[in-house]
Specification:
The protein is of the alpha/beta class. The protein is built from eleven helices and eight strands. The structure holds SN-glycerol-3-phosphate (G3P).
Length: 215
C-alpha cells in the first residue's frame, strides 16, 4: 500500500519524506489555509520535496471553472493530480480531464455508489473520508471494503485512497482490505512507528551496551 502524507505544511512534509516512507502528498483547501501561502506557491514547494503524486484541490464547483483551475494546477509540476469534489459538475470535469490525460483525485466520497460513478468517469484516485464517517457513528472502513470489492468486481483501475485517517487502526485495516493508498497526517505516521516493547527493548540494549568491554 502506498503512503501519502495529508498535509499542506512543508515542515511536516519534509519530516515525513526524510523517514523514507512517503509516496505522495494530498492537500485540501483547509490544510493549505493553515499553511498560509498561495496555493500555487505551496504546491510548487511540495513538488520540490516529494517526487510522487501531489493532489491539489480546485475550489470551483462548475465544470468549466473546475477545468480552468485544474489545467492551471497541472502547469505547476508534472506530478500534480487535480483534486475534484464528488458532485455532478465534478464528474463532468473528471471525464474531460481523463480524456486529456490529466490525473484526478475525486474527493469527499462517502458512499460506494459515489465511488462507482467516479470510477466510471475515469478518476485516477477515489478518496473516501473514513474518519468523518466514523464521526457520524457510521463505519468508515466498511466503505473502503465495499469500494475495493466493487472495483475488483469490474476491474476498475481507479485507486482507492483512504482519506480522513485518524489513527493507526484505520491504516492497518486499509492495508488488510487492499486499499491502494492511505493518506495520513504526520501525527498518525509518527504513531505507526511507536511500540512500547520497542522502547523497552531499546532501553535495555542501550544499558547492556555500557557493560560491553571496550578493549
Ligand atoms: O485530505 C482530506 C482528508 O484526509 C481530510 O481529513 O481529518 O479533515 O477529515 P479530515
Amino acid at each position: 500500500m502506498k503512503i501519502f502524507i495529508d498535509s499542506g505544511d512543508i515542515g511536516e512534509i519534509r519530516e515525513a519524506q526524510s523517514m523514507g516512507v512517503i509516496d505522495g502528498v494530498t492537500t485540501n483547501p483547509s490544510l493549505l489555509a493553515k499553511a498560509g501561502k498561495p496555493t500555487k506557491v505551496a504546491i510548487a514547494e511540495i513538488c520540490e520535496v516529494v517526487d510522487g503524486p501531489i493532489s491539489a484541490e480546485v475550489v470551483a464547483i462548475d465544470k468549466d471553472g473546475i477545468l480552468r483551475e485544474g489545467r492551471e494546477l497541472v502547469k505547476i509540476h508534472k506530478n500534480v493530480v487535480v483534486k475534484v469534489p464528488l458532485i455532478d459538475e465534478g464528474l463532468k470535469a473528471v471525464r474531460v480531464f481523463t480524456q486529456e490525460g490529466i490525473k484526478t483525485n475525486v474527493t469527499l466520497c462517502f458512499s460506494p455508489a459515489q465511488a462507482l460513478l467516479a470510477a466510471k468517469a475515469g478518476a485516477t484516485y477515489i478518496s473516501p473520508f473514513v474518519g468523518r464517517i466514523d464521526d457520524t457513528a457510521g463505519d468508515g472502513m466498511d466503505l473502503i471494503s465495499q469500494i475495493v470489492t466493487i472495483y475488483k468486481n469490474y476491474n476498475f483501475t481507479t485507486e482507492v485512497l483512504t482519506a480522513s485517517v485518524r489513527h493507526p487502526v484505520h491504516f492497518v485495516q486499509a492495508a488488510m482490505m487492499g486499499a491502494h493508498v492511505a493518506t495520513l497526517p504526520l501525527k498518525v505516521i509518527k504513531q505507526l512507528t511507536k511500540h512500547p516493547l520497542t522502547d523497552i527493548g531499546l532501553k535495555q540494549f542501550l544499558e547492556d551496551a555500557k557493560k560491553i568491554p571496550q578493549s
